[in-house]
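Give me the fold.
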Amino acid sequence: MPAPTATALRAARRAPCGSGAAEGSVPADRVAKMAALKGQTVTLGIRPEDLRVGAGASDYAFDAVVDVVEPLGSEILLDVTLAGQSVVARVEPSVQARPHEKIRLAFVPERIHFFDAKTEAVIK
């Protein structure tokens, strides 16, 4: 079975990075580059193994709805829906998740990748 690929999510940059509602939502090392993209659509890329379960109130946490639970022995692949977009998370085999239930996930901030939605170029 092939490994799941990274998830690409489209998002609009509305607020300046590091202030207001966006505070803490962009890793500090990318704030200056992202600030120049205010009002533009960017693509956020995250690999399935860079999502964590039950991250509480972190700036990088979100609620998703479980669509599919695929136990693979040493890990579980969860297909979830986030803001109408499909995301795959690779989680520990001890995670208890069922289809149609909400689950709290979080991005590992250092592992988030941003891309220009028009050119698909990496924003470093």
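The mean pLDDT is 79.
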